[in-house]
Amino acid sequence: MNWVLVTEFPLSLVFAENGMLEMELEGRKITLAKWEQGYYAFAQKCPHASGRMASGYINPKGQVVCPLHRYAFDLVNGRNTTGEGYFLKTYPVEQRPEGIFIGFKPNSFF
Hints:
The chain is an all-beta fold and 110 residues long. Helix content is 0%, strand content 43%. The model has no long low-confidence stretch (mean pLDDT 91).
């Protein structure tokens, strides 16, 4: 696993009101979300119709909801929770004393 530093503490990222922001790391466009006390990273676009996930919202159950068709996905494992059978690509996130890191598998571009 290749760990990439997103930001050093104190957290200098500015999240939108919905708790999400888009960024590019290691040539990958991803969404970083802050929900409750944790951070979560996942694909920039919905696997169904390519809606930009950062334009959606996080529901009270901790699921990210696509803005186009309201498909919901678990923040931790990307599993579709509304029954359509899709998976949202997720990435591991670690909070370390140095800052927030996102893990990428070597040569993993999807």
